[in-house]
Design a protein that fits this description.
Layout: H1 4-12, H2 24-29, H3 42-51, H4 56-69, H5 71-98, H6 104-112, H7 115-144, H8 153-170, H9 172-201, H10 217-220, H11 230-243, H12 248-252, H13 259-288, H14 300-307, H15 313-345, H16 363-382, H17 387-419, H18 436-450, H19 459-485
Helix pairs in contact: 3-9, 3-13, 4-5, 4-11, 4-13, 5-11, 5-13, 5-17, 5-18, 6-7, 6-17, 7-8, 7-15, 7-16, 7-17, 7-19, 8-9, 8-15, 9-13, 9-15, 15-16, 17-18, 17-19
Subcellular location: Membrane
Protein name: Amino acid permease
InterPro entries: AA-permease/SLC12A_dom, Amino_acid_permease_CS
Length: about 500
């Protein structure tokens, strides 16, 4: 059994609070009921960070994105999105190495912004993955219909639920190992797709309907922005949502061995892998498929593989997408569980949610997280046009809210670190280019959040998110009032 915060305090020293007093007790108190095990290695962390990003959005929805923004516009949007997420990850790296706390985001927000904001961030991030769980369980059942059309969809959804719950219940090591292999399949599929596409673009592999090497004519033949620039802007917003999941590095830091080595390594490989996998895939699709046809009916991956004569292309991609769904639901349940555990550990909800079994798994938090996913699944069936629509709108922007909080927390952390008499050289990992990197991440994420207003299709999401933020703050202050009015002895966990 490890105690991440006690170890961290010994390495990095104490911070000062707003009044200049040392926070040695505050930093170490998180370790009191921390019975999670450090079962993850660097290879797990790197694949989990990738697995949280690479999903059905790339395999299924990328063609629609190309059709809306055009080839160059889509490439530009993904490039800007990759820079934004990289800046956020650089700020998260400093926080995660200095304070490798499981469910870290709301702990940082509570410490460096305020307890009310910590509560809001916890609820926001929990909701993001809870809603994702419901949609992934549904997707798994639908994908299996291709091979077993006479079996009810709910049977396969139930099988997915049992599998993912079991992987998370066994131990963090089982979760990490399963996610490593799920993500590895996706990475292998994308690399194979890029290689086959590149050989086809240069004429090494023949392509139907082409008597010559396709090259890159399809990228430019209708102009750089065939539908104007506004669809590119809308695509940037979508790309931000697609890249959400990279922050899982922060969630896993408290259960990672040698976080001061593993976390920076995972962060620094994030940008070039995002560029390689996403932008290279978009370039291949756009070069081989006329952009007006890219979003019609079928995955662009299937269209390309069929055009070069790969047998069973649709079945291959169905398997890959199924793997992506299992990976996303596996990571989603883990992230949701650790956020519930962390809220219990911090006393935001009953502390018995922080209890762990002998394998270091918070089973009560796991059951609560799974219950949330099942409720999201139920709402997608019985109230898809009302309750579920609102949940999806909220979850879309919640990740961006978390990114804004991460960037601001790092800015405040660095100020307090210096004010307490420490130097930047004492940090095991310091955000490169601070403060420009940190403020760049904060401003770009805030702009991405506010400028949703100018996209008519996503304006509802912004309104719902702002209302929900106000509701969360209201719930926090009501909770605090109730606790003051009804004081009781805190529950001591064994």
């Amino acid at each position: 059994m490890s105690q991440p915060d006690t170890e961290t305090a010994a390495r990095t020293g104490s911070l000062t609070d707003e009044n200049g007093g040392e926070q040695t007790g505050t930093h170490q108190k998180h370790a009191l009921h921390t019975n999670l095990k450090r079962g993850m290695e660097a290879r797990h962390l790197q694949m989990i960070s990738l697995g949280g990003v690479i999903g059905t959005g790339l395999f299924l929805s990328s063609g629609y994105t190309i059709q809306q923004a055009g080839p160059i516009g889509t490439i530009l949007a993904y490039a800007i999105g990759a820079v934004i997420v990289y800046l956020v990850m650089l700020t998260l790296g400093e926080l995660s190495v200095a304070m490798p706390v499981t469910g870290s985001f709301h702990v940082y927000a509570e410490k460096f912004i305020g307890p009310g904001t910590g509560f809001v961030i916890a609820i926001q991030y929990w909701l993001t993955w809870t809603v994702a769980l419901g949609s992934e369980f549904t997707a798994a059942g639908l994908l299996m219909q291709r091979w077993f059309p006479h079996t009810p969809t709910w049977v396969w959804s139930a099988a997915c639920i049992v599998l993912i719950f079991t992987l998370n219940a066994l131990s963090v090591r089982f979760f990490a190992e399963a996610e490593f292999w799920f993500a590895s399949i996706k990475v292998f599929a994308i690399c194979a797709f890029i290689l086959i596409g590149a050989l086809t673009i240069f004429g090494v592999i023949p392509m139907k309907e082409y008597t010559h090497a396709p090259m890159f004519d399809n990228l430019f033949k209708d102009g750089i922005f065939p539908n104007g620039f506004m669809p590119v802007f809308a695509t940037i917003l979508t790309v931000n949502f697609a890249f959400s999941g990279t922050e899982l590095i922060g969630v896993t830091a408290g259960e990672t061995r040698n976080p001061e080595v593993a976390v920076p390594k995972a962060i620094h490989t994030t940008l070039w892998r995002l560029v390689l996998f996403f932008i290279s895939s978009i370039v291949v699709m756009s070069a081989l498929i006329p952009w007006r046809q890219a979003g019609v009916g079928e995955s662009p991956f299937v269209l390309v593989l069929n055009s070069v004569g790969i047998p069973y292309a649709a079945d291959i991609m169905n398997f890959v997408v199924l793997t992506a769904v299992l990976s996303a639901s596996n990571s989603g349940l883990y992230a949701s569980t650790r956020m519930v555990w962390s809220m219990g550990n911090e006393g935001m909800i009953p502390r018995w949610f922080a209890k762990t079994n002998r394998r270091g798994v918070p089973m009560l938090a796991l059951c609560a997280a799974m219950a949330g996913g099942l409720l999201a699944l139920l709402s997608s069936v019985v109230a898809a046009s009302t309750v579920y629509l609102v949940l999806v709108a909220l979850s879309g922007l919640s990740a961006v809210v978390v990114w804004i909080a991460i960037a601001y927390c790092q800015i405040v952390f660095r100020k307090r670190w210096i004010a307490s008499g420490h130097t930047v050289g004492e940090l095991k990992y310091a955000t490169p280019g601070h403060p420009w990197t940190s403020w760049g991440a904060f401003i770009l994420c805030t702009a991405s959040f506010l400028l949703v207003f100018f996209d008519k299709e996503q304006r509802f999401a912004l309104g719902a998110e702002l209302v929900f933020i106000v509701f969360c703050y209201g719930a926090y202050f009501v909770q605090q009032w109730w606790r003051k009015a009804h004081p009781k002895q805190p529950v001591q966990l064994p």
